[in-house]
Design a protein that fits this description.
177 residues, alpha+beta, five-stranded mixed β-barrel, two-stranded antiparallel sheet, 4 helices, 8 strands, SNase_OB-fold_sf, endonuclease, nuclease
């Protein structure tokens, strides 16, 4: 097997591509406008530079669109974030190359200009409270966030919110197509 000489220009392109591809993962957060809500736990955002990201909300797993409560999960998330600016905190790639992060949005408030408000609403936590997502335990969540998510899921179960109104809701990771 012969090895070809790799040109310095090719090497430079590989370095530039690698830097561009992985640089957003090292950021503390990504800010962008939500252009599409894919389902109850995934969105597409576009940042101020026009770069598009598909983001999976960390710490939750919502029903797929074809599952019971899948459309309701999508609708609820859409009301929270569609066409609004969000911050994706702690962005990282999962083992499949999917961008994960905690998605924060400003509260709906008529007194608040859309881009000048602090983004204090944790969309994943709100999906769990509404009974429209399972808490997906992850080591990337802080102990405090894990406790909040766990308590929210427990309360949703007790009050039979959303998917918890069913006797045995089937999580997406066990759903058979």
């Amino acid at each position: 097997m012969k090895f070809r000489f790799i040109s310095p220009i090719f090497q430079l392109l590989v370095v530039i591509f690698g830097w561009a591809f992985f640089s957003y993962v090292q950021a503390d957060s990504i800010t962008g406008r939500v252009t599409k809500v894919l389902d109850g736990d995934q969105i597409t955002i576009v940042d101020s530079a026009g770069k598009q990201y598909t983001v999976k909300i960390m710490g939750v797993d919502a029903p797929e669109r074809y599952q019971p409560f899948g459309d309701k999960a999508l609708q609820n998330l859409s009301v929270m974030v569609f066409n609004r600016e969000v911050d994706v905190e702690k962005p990282m790639l999962d083992r499949n190359g999917l961008l994960l992060g905690k998605v924060m949005v400003a509260p709906h408030d008529s007194q608040c200009a859309q881009n000048s408000c602090q983004k204090t609403v944790d969309t994943g936590l709100e999906q769990i409270k509404a009974g429209l997502a399972w808490w997906f335990r992850t080591k990337e969540q802080s102990a405090e966030e894990g406790a909040q998510y766990g308590q929210a899921e427990f309360a949703a179960k007790i009050h039979r919110n959303g998917l918890w109104s069913e006797t045995n809701p089937i999580p997406p990771w066990k759903w058979k197509y």
